[in-house]
Amino acid sequence: MAKLAHAQWSSRMTFVLAAAGSAVGLGNIWKFPYMVGESGGAAFVFVYLLCIALIGLPILVSEWLLGRRGQKNPASTMSELARTAKKPKAWAIVGISGIVGAFLILSFYSVIGGWSLYYTVNSVSGAFSGQDADGIGALFNGMLSNPGLLLLGHSVFMLLVIGIVARGVTKGLEGAVRILMPVLALLLVVLIGYGMTTGHFGEALTYMFNPEWSKLTAETVLAALGHAFFTLSLGMGIMMAYGSYLGKEIDLLQTARTVIIMDTVIALGAGLAIFPIVFANSLDVASGPGLIFVTLPLAFGNMGGGTILGLMFFLLLTFAALTSAISLLEPVVEFIEERTPLSRVMATVVAGVGAWLLGIAALLSFNVWSEPVLFGLGVFDLLDTLTSKIMLPLTGLGAILFTAWCLERSSVEDELGLSATGKSVWNVIARYVAPAGVIAVFVTGLI
């Protein structure tokens, strides 16, 4: 049966929402605030913003450009572009690595998405009310030690993701982000509004935007660099897949700036929603990953209106997880759909069930399979380490190097609509600055 013509986004705005939805995820709502807390506040924020501009933007543009030129899944795109540019076929590994990376990340990302669903339900039931630190800690540890509960959350979350992606680009991806992104933004605004009433909003502003440069260390810089890279969904085949649905009329640089601004505003907004609550309740800003799943429920359970605020916050977290998860499944589905006779629906089911099965191994590593399986790591941590420290940096590096060094320079400059000055800036950043930054993240991650 003949395949349909390659899908296209219906408008620039829906593409922006989809790309921003991919970028906006647990990294913004869960990881960014605790990294700010662990890394000394505003100094980390400013370095992060600089890294987004110098490394995130050029790699994002490169992945879109490659996807738009190839008009296929990431593996086929890189293979075709390498052939056209008379470069080795081995460049196809960049696309393959992105697809595999997205699949692996989705498998354990769905587990965390299940956590957010569990906490949303607990918010409604009032499970946080009146709890002390030991009670909230017991709730979190009880969840992790219960394989049946983790499996239920993981399964429901993955079913939602499969249902959205199976509907296709226009009905599925676009339809979801048109609903989820505005609701996510609204929830965030309401939570920031609440933060303004705590009497500690000014303290949060100072913490996030008045840097103490003495707290800036080499470790802080590298942490900011790594987070800037990963928050934009780079190196996962996602943006290349999304770029393949993009028309020639879209200004890539302008659109990238819009997506990065949206992603950054939501990350900063998450900090402004969370830190006033943390300060108002004399909680530890440097409590790490537990800031969301242990520290904040403690605050919600002991404040007026905490049930409603807790529900809104964990809905926000769930929506953010969904927008990223559907983008993680997309490059895998696109690859299967183009390389096999399977329909869009069946390709989605196959890819989704595969990720779900691997996710079961990941969730069991918190309980019955807690013993290390490789390099002293359980399945969950192994998948996280393999993707975030090895596959994603190398895939992103491959994309920027291919764009900057293998494609005809003048055609890239023309496609990006660069001025004379813009051409010089682009070539310096794309050829040297961004690759050096990615290599720094990669090498440091292995140490």
UniProtKB/TrEMBL annotation:
Subcellular location: Membrane
Keyword Phosphoprotein: no
Family according to the record: Belongs to the sodium:neurotransmitter symporter (SNF) (TC 2.A.22) family.
Chain ranges passing through the membrane: 12-30, 42-66, 90-112, 149-167, 179-201, 221-247, 259-279, 345-370, 390-407, 428-446
UniProt name for this protein: Transporter
Bilayer topology term: Multi-pass membrane protein
InterPro entries: Na/ntran_symport (IPR000175), SNS_sf (IPR037272), YocR/YhdH-like (IPR047218)
Main localization (coarse): membrane
Keyword Iron: no
Lineage top rank: taxon: Bacteria
